[in-house]
Amino acid sequence: MRDRAGANKGGCATPSQIRLNRNICAAGANGDVSTVLNLVHVHKEKASIVNLSTAWHCLARKEGKGSSACQSSSLDVLQEQTRLRLLNCLTRGKEDPQPRCVSTIAWSCAKLQVTNTELLSVITNAALQWLTLFKPFELANVLWGMAKLQLGL
Fold first, then answer.
1. What is the reported pLDDT for 70?
2. How far apart are CA 38 and CA 42, in angstroms?
3. What ranges make up the beta strands (E) of the chain?
4. Which ranges constitute the DSSP H helices of 30-65?
5. Cα distances (angstroms) measured from residue 88 to each of 120, 145, 153
6. What is the mean pLDDT for each group of 10 consecutive residues in the chain (153 residues)?
7. Inter-CA distances, 32 with 25, 28, 36, 52, 89, Å
8. Which of 22, 43, 64, 66 is most buried (CB neighbours < 10 A)?
């Protein structure tokens, strides 16, 4: 479970973001996809990029075990909130750069076969802007995810 649900500049998560991350992790550990998506929907305004990344990871892990519980329509809120939160990180600097989150989201999109070009474009922009901040495995996950999707962004 991630303790640093990092939201604002300086990496300080609010208590509600930390609780949200714990709840997302618990639902993910139980394989409860609908609860993960519902938590994102209910808390979409205050969810940090770490919270959203955690939700992506939980869904992708579940999908990887043969479940088809993640229909593209049920991912709409998660996709849009992720796109908006990454844009906020990139343009407004409201949150610290989060290369690990970008890595996790790119990997998850590939596992779930999410082809939302607006979201994937923001992911690639974040990867380019934060390139020097990535650890090798994080960058490898982004590259693998984009290659797996074969979108040519």
1. 61
2. 6
3. none
4. 33-42, 49-63
5. 15, 22, 21
6. 48 89 96 94 94 96 61 82 94 84 97 94 95 96 94 59
7. 10, 6, 7, 16, 29
8. 43
How far is Cα 107 from Cα 148, in angstroms, rounded to an integer? 9
Please name which of 88, 121, 84, 127 lies closest in space to residue 104, comparing C-alpha atoms: 127
Q: How far is CA 148 from the centre of its chain?
A: 17
Q: Tell me the two tokens of residue 37.
A: 């998506």
Amino acid of residue 106:
A
Question: CA-CA distance, 57 to 109, in Å (whole number)?
Answer: 9
User: Cα–Cα distance between 136 and 129 in angstroms, integer?
Assistant: 16
CA distance 81 to 41: 9
